[in-house]
Amino acid sequence: MKNDRRKNNYRTKKEFNPKDVCPGLKVSVNGDDERAFIRALRTFNKKVQDSGLLREIRAREFYEKPSIVKKRNKDIAVKRESRRRESEVTKRKRLY
Length: 96
Description:
- The protein is an all-alpha fold.
- It has one domain (2-90).
- Helices cover 65% and strands 0% of the residues.
- It has helices at residues 2-9, 18-21, 34-51, 53-59, 66-90.
């Protein structure tokens, strides 16, 4: 009788599910039309670009020292501030 209980409680091996290992973007295509595939491919490319996945992969391709990252971020901030000031100066002020 104890053996029967053990057999009932025996866990089966969990099946491999790629979604558990590497969650990501999913685009499903309904239909066999070539235009549907092209549209799905465009949608996929748009989602990848919007998510910033490729940008992050390229940034992490090689190790960057923290000092280099800080310097790059500072340069970007300085450039952004100079553009903001330049646009402020070129805006025409109304006198009425």
